[in-house]
Amino acid sequence: MKQFIGFALLATLTLQCTSQQNFQKSDYDKALPKYINSITSEELKTHLYIFASDEFEGRNTGEEGQKKAANYIRDFYIKEKIASPESPFVDNYFQYIPAKTYSRIQKDTENVLGFIKGSEKPEEVIVISAHYDHVGMHDGVVFNGADDDGSGSVALLEMAQAFQLAIKDGYHPKKSILFLHVTAEEIGLLGSKFYTDQQPVFPLENTIANLNIDMIGRVDEAHKNDENYVYLIGTDRLSTDLHKLSEKVNNQYIKMNLDYTYNAESDPNRFYYRSDHYNFAKHDIPCIFYFNGVHEDYHQPTDTPDKINYDLLAKRTQLIFATAWELANTEKRPVVDKPTKTK
Q1: Which terminal CB of the chain, N or C, has fewer other CB atoms within 10 Å?
Q2: What is the pLDDT of residue 306?
Q3: Class of domain 23-329
């Protein structure tokens, strides 16, 4: 009987290992909707009401509120058993940026990094980024930054959780995923600049794409009668492949209206150069910047969590997650077929 039990246990373990290792691309495609639907407006709302609360004091770079936000992110990754990158540049999820590294950084600050190692091509890395700093307090008034960029920050947490849920079911991403929460965006994209220009935790030549999120929780004036949209910026600036993959994923799973108005090289707002993806793009890393457009509460104390459209925030987060899933599980990396555009 003991021998029989031993054989049965061995067979079960063998079956589990096989199921985790032999999934084909078609299996990942069929499984994806389950994990898309695990990203919910309720969980995003719970996170954001904490993350954009007065307790975090507007998350100004180097200040106590920013430190509380960094700890909130780190504690989430620890709870979800998502690893810190193994790197001399990272200490327990934090990539430290000393004061005066750049003239605008007056106090020590830190990027926060969570990491899922790929099962087949771990050296190829997809970076999903959002800045978690905001503009702090002015005359005792908290600028909560719920949309800018609390919305992107909590979206990263939900996506990381969705990937971890898939891993528990045996659907481990084939390529690695770095969840990069950058600091000091509001004072010059300096957290992402530090990552790309001074301390890239993973070689930039092996970074196959950057999906960057900066404000995805609101509706702008141009879409007040059609909320099912998101602005995409940069999708085809460097890689036709990335643009096609993005369109395919949206058409198959999410069906949002993808608005490329601000992707035009003639765009007077120059948004392509104004968020953290640009520090990756200037190194010829294909990128997509996800954005809801500006609104009357941009950089105002009225950018509060009660004004977020949580169903829309969830749908946009699902789109980005599905795009990352496709990038992580497709055999080829996006080809860079267009030259870098400088300022």
Answers
A1: N
A2: 98
A3: alpha beta
